[in-house]
Amino acid sequence: MLKRRWATGVLVLVAIGAWQVVASLPGVDHLTLASPAETARAMWNDASLLFDNAWTTLVEVLLGLAIAVALGGAAAVVMHVVRPLRDIAYPLLIASQAVPVVVIAPLLVLAFDYGIGPKLAIVALICFFPVTVNLVDGLRAVDPEQLKLMRSLGASRAATLWKVELPSALPYLFSGLRLAATVSVIGAVFGEWAGADKGLGRLVLLGINQLQTPRVYAGVVILMAMALLLFVAATVAQRVAAPWSLEERTA
Amino acid sequence: MTTRLEAPVQEPRSISRDVLAVRSATRRYPARRRGREPVLALEGLDLSVRDREVLAVVGPSGCGKSTLLELIAGLQEPDAGSVEVAGAARAEERRRGCAYMPQSDLLLPWRDALSNAALALECSGASRAEARRAAAPLFERFGLGRFENARPNELSGGMRQRVAFLRTLLAGRPVLLLDEPFGALDAITRAQMQDWLAAALAHEPRTVVLATHDIEEALLLSDRVAVLSPRPGRVVAELEVELPRPRVRRELVSDPAFIGLEQRALEALGC
User: What is the distance between the alpha carbons of residues B169 and B162, in angstroms, rounded to a whole number?
Assistant: First the structure.
């Protein structure tokens, strides 16, 4: 495990090295590609600006994710319990993922103004699908023998859902959450591009227009780090909430 | 066609009445795919079990033992014939009369051993704390005292079966249906578990239907053995095991009565 961490570190360093080499090639325009050194300098010089805006974006991402988990969780449970609804609503669920966020984002901003609302809507929209689909699949994947046992014990539908189906679907929910965590950041950036007065997405967009390329790259690196952090946080949360799902089987 | 190798069951113990009666039960599973024949799992099966009797159902794998147990348990309905548990024929009433222990232990990995056993009480309305409190004395009595807080993945196969059996017992139903409870265990652990179960049933006498493919297990634990034919399952022989329970394995295997019964069971199975 530790060895693999080291290997990842080395790989990141190699990637940064390659980036540096490409950026310092004679034909490369500094307005389109900032070197790691320039990016690092921008990050240092604009630290307070970057992190101030990153905080705004992080709040959008976390609240959007929370909305997606709440709505997606509820939708998945309802779809699971009301069997016909699952088959009826599944295509709609897939359609929700196909909504072109780039197009919808400006319309949401037009409708709901520059505030946090449209950003949350977009983050929630793109995170809704992985959360819901994974949870629906998880609820459906429960061992039928287990359900038979619950039936023979005289368990109510609610008891079966609460004591067996939901806990055993928990690892699936976390898989969905990990996927959602990585796309949520992109959602927030789209939301800010469509119109915002704060946030890393907006800062990056301004940076492009003002030819502040190093700042743009610094923003991108922070967005990537944010997604990575959320991914790790989802895994840690799984370890706390569903430790059995990560243990090696000792059979 | 049923060949009775033993006297009719009512004769010596006719004082106690039947708690469980299966009358010419037939169960047919629809074809899984079009063009295939439906599977006839049981055909015209007759069986009755007296109060506090341990009946072993022995048969080759695939002969419909699990189907029979699920029919009794009220998890399935027969296509023809009837099943009665304590006089009740409707499936949900049968479910209330039976506690079913499936082949695999089905312990929930997020619950510790005590809460897994207590699940049976929670399902009939007790809170988790109440259920744990009520289950704890049973853990002590059946040698699981130290394992109350162990997670299923920390328990050995035999221990897991014990917890699963306690869960079945805690359901508080008059009839226990045990579906090859030790089938997945190694021979030595299985022998230990059989002795454990024999002792447990001596302590907590219940009406039991034990499905097994192990003749020795059947003769060790039961009062009567019903031998099923290959699919479609029917009772081809019933053997009374008139030896006092709990039985000691070492004494049993050299007992001429045991050897005779074993031979007749093998004969009925066509071995």
Answer: 10
Give phi and psi for B208, each to the nearest 5.
-130, 135
| d(C-alpha A157, C-alpha A173), whole Å | 21
Contact between A155 and A93 (Cβ < 8 Å): no
Q: B73: which chain A residues are within 8 Å (Cβ-Cβ)?
A: 152
Tens of pLDDT, residue by residue over B99-114, are: 999 889 999 999 999 9
The answer to whether A244 contacts B151, with C-beta atoms less than 8 Å apart, is yes
Task: Report the C-alpha gap between B103 and B157 in whole angstroms.
Answer: 12
Q: What percent of chain B has pLDDT over 70?
A: 94
Helix axes A117-140, A166-193, angle to 10 degrees: 150
Q: Are B210 and B222 in contact (CB under 8 A)?
A: yes
In contact, A60 and A119? CB cutoff 8 Å:
yes
pLDDT in tens, A55-100: 999 999 999 999 999 999 999 999 999 989 888 988 888 888 888 8
Residue of B nearest to A247 (CA): B153
Chain A positions with Cβ closer than 8 Å to B: 143, 145-146, 148-156, 159, 163-164, 167-168, 242, 244, 247, 249-250
Looking at residue B248, its pLDDT comes to 85
List the Cα angle A144/A150/A156 in 5-degree steps: 120
B175-179 vs B80-85, strand pairing mode: unpaired
Tokens, residue B116? 């897994």
User: Are residues A60 and A123 in contact, defined by beta-carbon separation less than 8 angstroms?
Assistant: yes
Contact predicate B194/B220, CB 8 Å:
yes
Is B69 in contact with B100 (CB distance < 8 Å)? yes
Residue A167: list chain B partners with CB under 8 A: 108, 110
CA distance linking residue B63 with residue B70, whole number of Å: 13
Report the pLDDT value the prediction gives residue A248, as an integer from 0 to 100: 58
E strand or H helix at B121: helix B113-123
Task: Find all residues with CB under 8 Å of A69, minimum gap 6, and list them.
Answer: A127, A131, A173, A177, A180
How does pLDDT run across B14-32, given as a tens digit for each residue?
Answer: 445 788 999 999 999 888 7
pLDDT averaged over every residue in chain B: 88
Bridge partner list, B25: B45
Q: Which residues of B touch A154 (CB under 8 A)?
A: 95-96, 123-124, 171
CA dihedral over B60, B205, B18, B242, signed as positive or negative: positive
Residues A230, B72: Cα–Cα separation, whole Å = 51
Global pTM value: 0.84
Q: Which residues contact B200 (CB under 8 A, 6 or more apart)?
A: B142, B165, B169
From A127, A126, A124, A112, select the one nearest A196 (Cα to Cα). Answer: A112
What is the biggest distance separating any 2 CA atoms in chain B, rounded to whole angstroms?
55
Neighbours of B46 (CB within 10 A): 15
The answer to whether the beta carbons of residues B175 and B85 sit under 8 Å apart is yes
Instruction: Give the ipTM.
Output: 0.86
Sort out which chain B residues have CB atoms less than 8 A from A163's CB and list them: 108, 119, 122-123
